[in-house]
Specification:
It is built from six helices and five strands. The protein starts with 7 loop residues before the first helix and ends in a 24-residue tail after the last helix.
Length: 237
């Protein structure tokens, strides 16, 4: 049985494309690590200085190439690395789960006030929840990554939310996945009611915390942060 001849040029092109995509994803992976390191330092220093840990949990995720390609197709983005780099800003994502709403705003302020961080965009769904009740503070920040080939500035989406917000968002995601986004109206109404309950729980727990440990600083409004050189500055959703 004769073997099928291999087109060496095509094979080499495929390998080159694979390597290019791996380098592309590595930039975002390294940018994600930079943000995780900054948050880890903030957590340890805050705990040392104030005997208090504002971060409950940090998680991260990197979009797969399939997910990136699907989003590019859905949004009509040209399927090139240059177009994807310019148009898709949430390839790398870090989620910060905090105890209280004030912690979410405080950590946002501490992170974006660092000299090497540039703010591309802010969407404050805590102050202005989505219609379905979703609450979280989203920020697209750029962080420098120093590679053997030089420095690249990498966008990373960072989400700040409380434990109650995170629990609600997790449940909402599971429900929408189960029903393939065709969720019955009664469940949508129940989710919206649950979001209100979660917000009330956040308020109650923060009041209890203040009563036990004394008054803490008022939350920082993220949209009051002024743009700095090198960044576009935050914008409202």
């Amino acid at each position: 049985m004769s073997s099928i001849p291999v087109d060496e040029d095509m094979l080499e092109h495929a390998r080159s494309l694979r390597d290019e995509m791996q380098r592309f994803l590595n930039e975002y992976r390294f940018g994600m690590r930079e943000i995780e390191t900054k948050l880890s330092i903030l957590r340890e220093d805050f705990e040392h200085q104030h005997a208090y840990n504002p971060i409950e949990h940090v998680s991260s995720r990197l979009k797969s190439m399939d997910s990136i390609a699907e989003k590019a197709d859905r949004k009509g983005i040209e399927p090139t690395i240059e177009a994807i780099r310019a148009s898709i800003l949430d390839i790398a994502g870090v989620r910060v789960t905090c105890s209280f709403v004030t912690d979410a705003y405080r950590l946002f302020e501490l992170l974006v006030s660092q000299d090497d961080i540039s703010v591309r965009e802010v969407k404050d769904y805590i102050a202005h929840p989505k219609a379905n009740g979703y609450k979280s503070l989203h920020a697209i920040v750029e962080v420098p990554v120093f590679l053997s080939t030089g420095m690249v500035s990498v966008p990373v989406e960072v989400q700040f939310r409380t434990i109650a917000m995170d629990f609600w968002a997790s449940l909402e995601h599971k429900i929408y996945y189960k029903y393939d986004k065709q969720v019955p109206a009664r469940l949508i109404d129940s989710l919206r009611d649950a979001a209100v309950t979660a917000a009330e729980l956040d308020d109650r727990m923060e009041r209890l915390h203040r009563e036990l440990h004394g008054e803490r600083p008022a939350p920082i409004a993220p949209l009051s942060i002024l743009p700095r050189a090198g960044g576009d500055g935050p914008t409202a959703a």
